[in-house]
Amino acid sequence: MCHFFQMLEENIITFVKNELKKMQNDLNPDYSECQRDEEEVLDSEEEKQRRSSREAFLKLAVNFLRIMKQEELADCLQSSERISLHKFSCENTFKCNLKKKFHSVFEGIAKPGTRTTLNEIYTELCITEGGTGEVNTEHEVRQIEMFSWKPNRPETTIRCEDIFKALTERDKPIRTVLTKGVAGIGKTLLTQKFILDWAEDKTNQDIQFMFPFPFRELNLLKDKKFSLVGFIHHFFTEIKEAGICNFKKFKVVFIFDGLDECRLPLNFHITEILTDVTESTSVDVLLTNLIRGKLLPSAHIWITTRPAAANQIPAEYIDMVTEVRGFTDPKKEEYFMKRLRDKEEANTIISHIKTSRSLHIMCHIPLFCWITATVLESLLKTKQAGGQLPKTLTEMYIHFLVVQTKLKNINYDGGAETDPLWSPESKIMIEALGKLAFEQLQKGNLIFYESDLTECDINVREASVYSGVFTQIFKEERGLYQDRVFCFVHLSVQEFLAALHVHLTFINSGINLLEEEETASVQTGVYSVRQFYQSAVDKALKSPNGHLDLFLRFLLGLSLQTNQTLLQGLLIPKRNISQTNHETVQYIKNKLNENLSPEKMKEIQRHLSSGSLSIVDLSPAQWSALVFVLLISEEELDVFDLKEYSASEEAFLRLLPVVKDSKKVLLSGCNLTKKSCEALSSVLRSQSSRLRELDMSNNNIQDSGVELLCAGLESSHCTLQTLRLDHLTTCCLITEKGCAFLSSDPQWKLETLSGCNLTKKSCEALSSDLRSQSSRLRELHMSNNNIQDSGVELLCVGLESPHCTLQTLRLSGCLITEKGCAFLSSALSSKSSHLTQLDLSYSHLGDSGMKLLLTRLQDPQWKLETLR
Where is the NACHT domain (predicted)? Predict the structure, then answer.
């Protein structure tokens, strides 16, 4: 019993000492809240128990101070602790409000009040550290395509909750983080998850307050003035009610989401310096000084943006740049499994998107996964599309429009499943939305306000409920705004509706919105249609950053008869415009060299014929046009020879979609490196790849490149039958290590390793492959390699295996002697041998070796037919 009381005494003394120290710190004006929480971070239940004990001890301490005649100190302590307890109550209220706000999210707007729990639907995103805040102006679909073939990226991946934690040793702590990502990739959802996990006491409990500010809402305060304290109080009334004005005492995080949507004049070079948190100024000056670190330098700042706007903040004010890459391939599958309750449907959808390169790439974007799930789930349930699911982006977006229109007709208009799809009201709405999409796309706007809707004759209330197509994003619970903020659910939806608007306007009224001066054509023949598409090509090619590439893809996709059939009811049946596709393709080819001086045009033509196109600077739009021409050409892409365009890695990476769609790809002597192997690995893993033969001879790919190629060769989807790394000895700089990678793949049907400086070690690896039960190796070329007799002995172990299927073996110039002939003779005598052709030319076989093999060749049990 005494022992327990002794322990109790020790615990009480420790508690008293700790609490007295905390009280002393509370009375110290230089001691901050973040220092206190760094000492001890407790979960919410432990925190409540500690607070209860502190309240009791506070009364005791105050009583003793009064007995000691220290009335002033007692009053100060009582006041300080009351503020501390009030602060704790404020934190709880603040977290509770954020939990309510971010607990559920809209995926589109399926029906008023229908929400999805964030924790249920959230699928981990790929976030990488590294890179710079430099601007990337290429079309975002193109950027996604570039990401898609990088399976082994060197960047460091980080977890959502660790966004402010340095993964490597740094000279200074991380204050400001800039996170880039294309539209719809999940940047906003990422910030919401970060906040929700904190509010639910799961992560980052050393932080006292998180303040989220979407730029699309800050735009509405453009003409107002605030102090930093007033700015926070304006958005977060619970902070104001708690009387918290000194944020230096706390560890706080400001989250500014959507820098690309900012319409405030952020100017870091001429904006006045502001250090007083109580001084009023414009919102842009507040933000500029907060990011600079002049205002509240202890605060952490997190900014998200699309790549094109990343350079709005000077690099010296950014401590770390991260990038949201969206879903990895496994996470895509995880998303569909979470999103769809019917697992069979989920598996069907997963299998389907793997068959289409464009769909598979776009599914890196979480919001496109939602669009895909919405469309395919509906089609599978209603058994539509005649058993055919959409394989192109245009088909997918047409079906998306159809699905959303049906939901609107049933959920909001009280219609039936069998009612006509395109009611007069729906037609008017689609026309209005299309007009808005087109006009805002031309201005480069992804967000717009009520005044923009009015100009397009859109009823705000009807637009808000147009399910999933037009999402109303505004906050009215605080009564802060005089206007509402709107945007399409994704940039690609805006681009599709813009293309649909231009298409419908021309087909139904003859007006070409893409002409410099809109004119109504009285012609109804092929000529006017051809002019229409040519003007679309002209407009897209004039874009310096290719921002109309996807718009053009949708517009040309809408010209196909199969897609027009899906839009019956919207179109006035007049003519078949698909017949002009061939002329449009030819026009794009011609336009690649247009708008250039005669000298420049001749230069391009000369370089095209000589295979040195890379000398000429083609714009992203021109590269996209070249890819488009090659992909939609009526001639099947049986052979693609990079030298016809440019023997360079830059051209190869630009033309990668063409490589994937070709059967035979010739890349010999094109100055390719490991980077190209990384891209090719992605092509080989693709379920829709048509690649059968690949010539990589005379390129400096080295062992590291071979390792990347093997990542693709190991895929069950790989159909490659021929790989050439031969010709000039050691030209590919592949060593034994590289051959070990190559030999480890069981899927190969043909392998050419001639002249690659292989040795005995490589033969050991290849022998293992020949013995593999899953080996499909039919032909092995190892000529001009120093494998010698010891290497042949190892190969023969594989040849004698019952699993070996090798039919042709070429060992010309491999320094083989009569000893090696003995090994081969024994292996060929095996009943399991399938070898029919053997090349031992330029070897040192000697008379005895030759005699041994020739004698065996006459044996009827031998399957060998040709001996060189």
Answer: 175-309
